From TrEMBL:
<feature type="domain" description="Band 7">
    <location>
        <begin position="21"/>
        <end position="186"/>
    </location>
</feature>
<keyword id="KW-0812">Transmembrane</keyword>
<dbReference type="Pfam" id="PF01145">
    <property type="entry name" value="Band_7"/>
</dbReference>
<protein>
    <submittedName>
        <fullName>Protein HflC</fullName>
    </submittedName>
</protein>
<keyword id="KW-0472">Membrane</keyword>
<keyword id="KW-1133">Transmembrane helix</keyword>
<dbReference type="InterPro" id="IPR036013">
    <property type="entry name" value="Band_7/SPFH_dom_sf"/>
</dbReference>
<dbReference type="InterPro" id="IPR010200">
    <property type="entry name" value="HflC"/>
</dbReference>
<feature type="compositionally biased region" description="Low complexity">
    <location>
        <begin position="355"/>
        <end position="380"/>
    </location>
</feature>
<comment type="similarity">
    <text>Belongs to the band 7/mec-2 family. HflC subfamily.</text>
</comment>
<feature type="region of interest" description="Disordered">
    <location>
        <begin position="318"/>
        <end position="380"/>
    </location>
</feature>
<dbReference type="InterPro" id="IPR001107">
    <property type="entry name" value="Band_7"/>
</dbReference>
Length: 380
């Protein structure tokens, strides 16, 4: 009885082994390669339940991935056409598109495929970067670079039954030593540009300052010229008025100028003057205080109204709005208007009857000077 139970148990176990060894399941993430004595007999890419010859001695099944797989390439140093170096991080995604070729040419091992990918991926990235300038990887050319790298890898990987789906560049940075040199170069360029802009600004400032200085000089010169012209016209008018006033009695004018000269020269300034009594300066000192005889021939008095210039339509001097006006009337110190002189009253003689022949007047620091800017007699 015991032996019979053992035989039945062995038969049941053998039947279960044959049953389970002849069944294999393929899910949606896998593919199955069926081999008989090392030769591929079937490839199952659809998920489901499949049967084969029992035991793995005759038929064996290899399960391979049907999902997208990823290969990463980190800290890869590449050189661009300008000689600069980049540190690049990139990855690619692939899948086993042909399990039969994958088994035949890659022995069904992902390590063989990844070794081939590493070699081809590295070469493709170096080629893509080597054809471009320094800033290309940081510009809008980056998507095109990734497509070119994928196209370079694709033909070699198809031979292994692997399809390259996509290539992505994660990071593109300058190498540390290159980054420092690049920073210094960019800094020098910015400083040079700033110096150029500053020089241009100073040039424009100097130009504007020179124009302003020139205009200021021109304005001051024009104003000075107009002022001198106006001052000259005023002086001429003043001299004309004084000449018209004093020219009516030259003898009185000579006497008046002599008195003014005495007042100026003989002031108490501490200066000693030694002169001969016969000098012209003491002409009126030896006359016993008497004035010279009155002149009997007087010039015709000058009518101030006849000296008013005729009005013209010409503009004022240099556009300053200054026009010639009627000369002011001449008045004496007491406020009375100056009138033509018709005679001279002779004062009473001095009681002592004589004047000193020589006097030592008070020192004077200044020479006799006329009161007004008019021609002085020769005797003064």
């Amino acid at each position: 009885m015991t032996n019979r139970l053992l035989v039945i148990g062995a038969i049941v176990l053998a039947a279960l082994y044959v049953l389970f060894s002849s069944i294999y399941i393929v899910n949606e993430r896998e593919q199955a390669i069926v081999m008989r004595f090392g030769q591929i007999t079937a490839v199952n890419t659809q998920p489901g339940l499949y049967f084969k010859v029992p035991t793995d001695i005759v038929d064996s099944v290899q399960i391979v991935e049907d999902r997208l797989l990823r290969y990463d390439l980190d800290d890869m140093t590449v050189q661009v056409s300008g000689g600069a170096f980049y540190e690049v991080d990139a990855f690619l995604s692939y899948r086993i598109a042909d399990p039969r070729l994958f088994r035949e040419r890659a022995l069904g091992q992902l390590s063989v495929v990844e070794d081939r990918i590493a070699t081809r991926f590295d070469a493709a990235l170096r080629q893509v970067y080597g054809l471009r300038e320094f800033n290309a990887a940081l510009s809008e050319q980056r998507p095109q670079m990734m497509r070119e790298a994928r196209d370079l890898i694709y033909p070699d990987m198809v031979e292994l039954g692997v399809e390259i789906v996509d290539v992505r560049i994660l990071r593109t940075d300058l190498a540390r030593e290159v980054e420092e040199r690049t920073f210094e170069r960019m800094r020098a360029e910015r400083l040079a540009e700033a110096a150029l802009l500053r020089a241009r600004g100073q040039e424009q400032a100097q130009s504007l300052r020179a124009i302003a200085d020139r205009q200021a000089v021109e304005i001051v010169a024009a104003a000075t010229r107009d002022a001198e012209i106006i001052r000259g016209d005023g002086d001429a008018e003043r001299i004309r008025l004084y000449a018209a006033a004093y020219g009516q009695d030259p003898e009185f004018f000579e006497f008046y100028r002599s008195m003014e000269a005495y007042r100026t020269a003989l002031a108490g300034t501490g200066t000693t003057m030694v002169l001969t009594p016969e000098s012209e300066f003491f002409r009126y000192f030896g006359s016993n205080g008497e004035l010279p005889a009155a002149s009997t021939s007087f010039p015709t008095p000058i009518d101030p109204s006849s000296q008013v210039p005729a009005a013209t339509d010409e503009p004022a001097l240099d556009g300053l709005g200054i026009e010639e006006t009627t000369p002011p009337s001449v008045t004496l110190d007491d406020g009375t208007p100056l009138e033509p002189t018709q005679g001279t009253q002779i004062p009473a003689p001095v009681e002592d009857g004589s004047a000193p022949a020589e006097e030592t007047p008070a020192p004077a620091e200044e020479a006799p000077a006329p009161v007004e800017e008019t021609p002085a007699p020769a005797g003064q």
